[in-house]
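Quick check before the chapter quiz. The format below is the same one you will see on the exam, so make sure you can read both the input and the output lines.
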Amino acid sequence: MTMQYLVVIEEGPTSYGAYVPDLPGCVAVAPSREEVIELIREAIEFHIEGLKEDGLDTPVPHSSSEVVEIAA
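Here is the expected output.
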């Protein structure tokens, strides 16, 4: 079974950060967008493995996103 989790990516002054709203504490930081995406994918897998090892359920993804346009 595959699951899709929303990943929020933020560009900082010197790096990119990523986090998963449905998996509190699941974060990654890297110097490039491509690398942070790779690292957050690994972090999600590691996070879920840890939950399973602890006998906890894998959280069902429920976050979503929407782009909202405004006049600026």
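If your answer matched, good. The beta strands are 8-11, 16-19, 27-30.
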